[in-house]
Amino acid sequence: MSNQKPSIPKGTRDFGPKVVSKRNYLISTIRATFEKFGFLPLETPTMENLSVLTGKYGDEGDQLIFKVLNSGDYVSKVKTNIATTPSQKLTPQISEKGLRYDLTVPFARYVVMNRNEISFPFRRYQMQPVWRADRPQKGRYREFMQCDADVVGTKSLICEAEIIMMMNEILQNLGIEGYQIIINSRKILSGLAAHLGHKGEEGALCVAIDKLDKIGKEGVFKELEKIGYKKFQLESLSPILELTGSNQEKIKALESTLANNDEVLKGLSEIKQILNYVESMSGNLATVEFDPALARGLSYYTGAIFEIKILDGSIGSISGGGRYDNLTGVFGLPDVSGVGFSLGIDRIYDVMEARDLFPKEVATTTQVLITNFGEEEEAFAIKQLAKLRQAGISSELYPTSAKLKKQMTYANNLNIPFVVLIGSNEVESNTLTVKNMIQGTQESITIEALISKLAK
Question: How many angstroms separate the CA atoms of 309 and 313, rounded?
Fold first, then answer.
């Protein structure tokens, strides 16, 4: 039997120690902002029942859910001929569970199942991987981490304003510049569908407009023509998709163009209120752009919707979210309004890596390496190692006696900033020779002096 070459599924990745350290830095920076704004941590299972997941993401989303085969001899329980049964009809017979597609739907399920223990409004954040059977490409993976923050149990637009505040603060704390927080409202898109003669069909309009960046206006119009939009209707949509000017100018233009459309006016009124709240909170509105062409394809949004784009065009959106008025309704708990957003850790990581924004010390966990030159030196070194660790300083002892060059190369490769050299002289004098690997300097000090120095 030949040795099989190991591999991992397409769209998944291994993360080595340096990458995980940087990801942990990202996650802890985001977590600090979430908690500063009063959000509580939550985790849900990797698998959900398919009945929970399906029908929440639109037809395209449903197709991208990874199904999990039932345990045991699942084929024996199939009631139809497998060879002639279409996969859509076969799936329910062999699979009852799926990997979670996002964190919002499992969150809605959690809220419904725990409604008697939760204090509303309930503010939660969640940082866990999700899975999508998408075609892998740059910045798009089949397994990726999401960081969500949601508030449920209130319709207050203060929550939308706080989302803008958090988005700005997180990116500022990470040192990311050149981004835009784009905001729109599903109410505007819903009113727009009615204005174009397709009342109640805003879902299809949103799915098409959501592809504007990928396929351009002509591509979007072709998709809309396929579902029954006439040329004259598309001509009146064109100037709305191409609106320019400040947020106030764009809002005024729409208020004028669609003055008789109550749904659009309601959406515009909410956008103005959100922007006013951000201003009252001394938030940064320079990064916020109102864009009536922002759609977000997910079908559960009902109010304000958000997206963060990197202006250099190097990657797609790094965050998105919005208001959903009845997501819990499908689980038997109607009229619980919520709003939230999700950060794409992998995409933010790629932006920071490309721009060299991670602090150099992030990838370093060990602060001190103690060398090993033989039995006598090792016995002395172990005692120093214990003292360093008792003082809370991350340290390690090179486990075997080896040449100095080999041990120094090891320290260099792991970016360890201090190397403690222990030879027979150090053992006799009860001192340490400490080499600063960053500055290239060297000094002879006691273990107490070293601990005092590193504690600072």
Answer: 8
- Residue found under tokens 């966990």: 365
Domains and CATH numbers, the chain: 17-354 (3.30.930.10), 364-455 (3.40.50.800)
**CA 185 to the chain's CA centroid:** 22
Cβ-proximal residues to 391 (8 Å cutoff; 6+ apart), any chain:
451, 454, 455
> From CA 240, how far away is CA 274, in angstroms rounded?
21
Decide: 242 and 232 in contact? Cβ < 8 Å. no
d(CA 30, CA 33): 5
Question: Can you tell me the distance from the alpha carbon of 208 to that of 431, in angstroms, rounded to the nearest whole number?
Answer: 71
For residue 219, what are the CA distances in angstroms to 211, 212, 223?
8, 8, 6
- Global pTM? 0.85
Q: What are phi and psi of 97, to 5 degrees?
A: -125, 160
User: How many Å apart are CA 101 and CA 65, to the nearest integer?
Assistant: 6
Spatial separation of the C-alpha atoms in residues 90 and 84, rounded to whole Å: 10
DSSP string for residues in 75-111: GGG--S-GGGS-HHHHHHHHEEEEE-S-SHHHHHHHH
Decide if 107 contacts 117 (C-beta within 8 A): no
**Counting Cβ atoms within 10 Å, is residue 415 exposed (0-12), middle (13-18) or buried (19+)?**
middle
123's enclosing H/E stretch is strand 122-131
Q: Which residues of 110-128 are buried (b: 16+ CB within 10 A; e: fewer)?
A: bbbeebeeeeebbbbbbbb
Angle of CA points 67, 72, 75, to nearest 5°: 70
Q: Which two tokens stand for residue 128?
A: 């866990």
Strand partners, 47: 99
pLDDT tens profile 87-133: 777 777 788 899 999 998 899 999 999 999 999 999 999 999 999 99
C-alpha–C-alpha distance, residues 317 and 308, integer Å: 5
Report the alpha-carbon distance of residue 170 to residue 147 in Å, rounded: 12
Q: Distance between CA atoms of 94 and 185, rounded to whole angstroms?
A: 40
| Structure tokens belonging to residue 296 | 């977000």
Q: For 59-94, what is each residue's pLDDT tens digit?
A: 788 889 999 888 887 777 777 777 666 777 777 778
Cα angle 51, 55, 60; round to 5: 125
Write down the pLDDT at residue 380: 96
For 118, the token pair is: 């939760």
Which residue from 40, 42, 56, 54 is spatially nearest to 324, judged by alpha carbons?
Answer: 56
Reply yes or no: is the peptide bond before residue 121 cis, omega within 30 of 0.
Answer: yes
How far is it, in rounded angstroms, from Cα 297 to Cα 318? 15
Separation between Cα atoms, residue 295 and residue 215, nearest integer Å: 14
